[in-house]
Design brief:
two-stranded parallel sheet, 14% strand
Amino acid sequence: MNEEAQHNIPDIVNQVDLPVYFVIGKFDYMTSVNAAKNYYDSLEAPVKEFIIFEESAHYPQFEEKEKFTVWLNKTFNELLNGAFES
């Protein structure tokens, strides 16, 4: 049995104390958007964001490099400027 089946993250982690970002490609068939969204909805975190890249599968950081870089820089700058402090 593989490790993922033995240790299902949604059953183990239901709360984190830091910002959480779910970044997923619309055409990702390794991790379905619906499964990821269900976990996202159940997860407690001070800041959460669910980002879907419309032209990607499992690797939006490579498949939509420019859009991913813009999102990453924007998010990083917001964190640096304290926009998400609770």
